[in-house]
Specification:
Layout (H helix, E strand, L loop, with lengths): L2 H14 L8 E5 L5 H9 L4 E4 L2 H14 L4 E4 L8 H7 L2 E5 L2 H14 L4 E5 L16 H10 L6 E3 L9 H13 L4 E3 L6 H6 L4 E4 L1 H4 L7
Parallel strand pairs: 1-2, 1-8, 2-3, 3-4, 4-5, 5-6, 6-7
Bound molecules: pyridoxal-5'-phosphate.
Length: 218
């Protein structure tokens, strides 16, 4: 699907939800996509991109950023602590703050650098054992612990369980954000972004609908 078509679906969803035009940020998820496709989307005007792997992002974005100004990069995949330093240098936003040890690491890096990327706390809304993220019951305490380290998340992120209606997960995330005074909601992907916009998403993460199917990870 072209960028223009995704943008028009997004505007319609914003309008249908009674939300201001442009209130939702489209993150184009370019992980594993061939550079030619990424360049096409850059040429069409998209500037906000999401990546899952620090290594891959570090190998492709410095070059791409030379050719196109104003790129904002979002880290949306699991972040290993030993890649945190590289990640904070490369990314403008990290959506996968998912454990206390990573919070501590990011807090230390922010202190050293005097600044750091914007952060979303990833919540495991389905309490799935194989999935990363803070469990819903532990979220309020985790946010408080982050703030005590002078780390100030701007919102929450979730990936609802496969094969389930995502809407209850979007609502759960929205309620948890509201009660913690957090404004950002990173939720909604190719198959469900319109539903996420209806539930208050501020950031949607769209990959395959925009770029086409991804090659499998190596
Ligand atoms: C890959 C990925 C996406 C994009 O998924 P699509 O279904 O291709 O839109 C969104 N969010 C996260 C966390 C991802 O890993």
């Amino acid at each position: 699907m072209t960028l223009a078509l995704i943008q028009s679906r997004l505007s319609q969803a914003e309008q249908a939800a009674g939300r201001p035009a442009g209130s939702v940020t489209l993150i184009a998820v370019s992980k594993l996509q061939p550079d030619a496709r990424v360049r096409d989307v850059l040429t069409a005007g998209q500037r906000v991109f999401g990546e899952n792997y620090v290594q891959e992002a570090a190998s492709k974005w410095p070059d791409l950023r030379q050719g196109y100004s104003g790129v904002h990069l979002h880290m949306i995949g699991p972040l290993q602590s030993n890649k945190a330093k590289q990640a904070v240098a490369l990314f403008d936003v990290i959506h996968s703050l998912d454990r206390p040890s990573l919070a501590q690491k990011l807090a230390n890096l922010a202190q050293t650098r005097g600044t750091g990327p914007a952060l979303f706390v990833q919540v495991n809304t389905g309490s799935e054992p194989q999935k990363a993220g803070i469990l819903p019951d532990a979220l309020d305490q985790f946010v408080a612990d982050c703030r005590a380290m002078d780390l100030h998340p701007q919102g929450l992120m979730c990936i609802p369980p496969d094969g389930q209606d995502p809407v209850p997960h979007f609502r759960l995330l929205r309620d948890m954000a509201a009660r913690n005074g957090l404004h950002g909601l990173s939720m909604g992907m190719s198959s469900d972004f319109e539903a996420a916009v209806a539930e208050g998403a501020t950031h949607i993460r769209v990959g395959s609908a925009l770029f086409g199917a991804r090659p499998a990870p190596a």
